[in-house]
Amino acid sequence: MTASTGGGPAGGSPAGGMTPAEAAEGIALQATRMDLLRFATAGSVDDGKSTLIGRLLYDSKSIFEDQIEAVERTSRDRGEESTNLALLTDGLRAEREQGITIDVAYRYFATPRRKFIIADTPGHIQYTRNMVTGASTAELAIVLVDARNGLTEQSRRHAFLATLLQVPHLVLAVNKMDLVDYSQEVFERISSEFSTFATKLDVADLTFIPISALHGDNVVERSANTPWYDGPSLLHHLEHVHIASDRNLVDVRFPVQYVIRPHASANPELHDYRGYAGQVAGGVLKAGDEVMHLPSGFTTKISGIDLAGEPIAEAFPPMSVTLRLSDDVDISRGDLICRPNNRPAAAQDIEGMVCWMSAERSLTPRSRLIVKHTTRTVKAIVTDLHYRIDVNTLHRDESATSLGLNEIGRVRLRLTQPVFADPYARNRETGGMILIDEATNTTVGTVMITEAS
């Protein structure tokens, strides 16, 4: 993902013409970002993902009256007996006509305890790539399962993708419990089946919750219909799940997106200003810290950090800031700033798991692609396809010769220039890459790096 540009020069006008009060508000917002939880919904078609999000928004009083009225009106026009809360997230005309989610819908809401950004992802296998997009930045994934149907192929596929994307927290929400008379036996059977499947995955934190998104059971409040369940409601779990330690605050990684050099004619006092803007991908940066520039290997110190035109004491993921350095170093877009004794691999040979997203072409050995890694873009060739994964059995098909739409496999890439990479399990920003078609400039795949040399 491309980092957003950080703040402007210290001592100058705040970036974008903001007033000092607006700049201070931006700084405060960045400082509280640790209280922001990004989560994604996943699961098969008609398992109730959009309805669940609508229920969360409705019961937490996070939608406006005119939105509620519009949804109620649309529900009546369609002849539905009750308000269809799924319409709060299914915004595309095709989604409402077909009753399915096609694109990723992002929604924001907040409680007194925490802020949330929801990615409502499609359940249809045709749109698996959209699910990957929504889950790639999530800290928690909710996999919904219809209590009547149990685990499906798509439920397993999305759970596997969530763990492949290193989403640290996973919730299996057994939905539509009202249609199985809130049966404890059904809930425990599905939970046991998923637990067996999860032993094959890399799941750090797994929680099971029985819910009815349609009626609100165990969504915002605990339900009297499930007296046998002694766990939290879904919202209570979302508010209290521990995420502060999920980000990598040890390995300093700062990919440079843009070099800021103000024109002296605009502000003569800033004629010597040079700042390096980007998004912190790892670690904590403070003024006075010794850092190293890659690829040159030169070391220097941070003289200051700016956010929205104002100096701040420290920066951490995912803040977008501007660094000022004590020495003049030749730095440009695509370079990386790190600690002298803690640097990523400068790698041209990459091993990784690929999720292929193109229906127009397949990934095969000798395929030529463009690789986007943090802020660096280079050309690459696929040197080997080791295997393709069957997401139902997790079996490795080593006889596979290509990857088609939504298929996952392990490949080896050779890059024309080195990138500064970590394993994806260590850092999702410096461990992830985007694959781009040379001819059409469209995104055709994502890579989760396992080895970089």
| CATH class group of the largest domain | Alpha Beta
CATH superfamily of the largest domain: P-loop containing nucleotide triphosphate hydrolases
Q: Note poorly predicted spans.
A: 1-6, 8-34, 91-102
How many structurally independent domains?
3
Number of helices: 8
- From the spread of the alpha carbons, the general shape counts as globular
- The assigned CATH architecture of the largest domain is 3-Layer(aba) Sandwich
Q: Tell me the structural class.
A: alpha+beta
Mean pLDDT: 83
Estimate the helix proportion, in percent.
10-25%
Q: State the end-to-end distance.
A: 22 Å
Could you give a short account of the major beta sheet? 8 strands, antiparallel
DSSP strand count: 23
As a percent range, the share of strand residues is 25-35%
Description:
There is one protein chain. By secondary structure, the chain is an alpha+beta fold. The chain has 3 domains: 15-20 and 248-338, Translation factors (Elongation Factor Tu (Ef-tu), domain 3); 34-240, 3-Layer(aba) Sandwich (Rossmann fold), CATH 3.40.50; 345-452, Beta Barrel (Elongation Factor Tu (Ef-tu), domain 3). The chain is 19% helix and 32% strand. The protein is built from 8 helices and 23 strands. It has helices at 20-31, 49-59, 65-77, 93-98, 128-135, 153-164, 184-198, 234-240, and strands spanning 36-43, 105-110, 115-120, 140-146, 169-175, 205-210, 253-255, 258-260, 275-279, 285-286, 290-294, 299-307, 310-312, 314-315, 320-325, 336-338, 345-356, 368-373, 376-389, 396-397, 408-421, 432-437, 443-452. The strands form 4 sheets. Strands 7, 8, 9, 11, 12, 13, 15 and 16 form an 8-stranded antiparallel sheet that branches. It has a 6-stranded mixed sheet with strand order 2-3-1-4-5-6, sandwiched between helices. It is globular, with a radius of gyration of 24 Å. Mean pLDDT is 83; it is low at 1-6, 8-34 and 91-102.
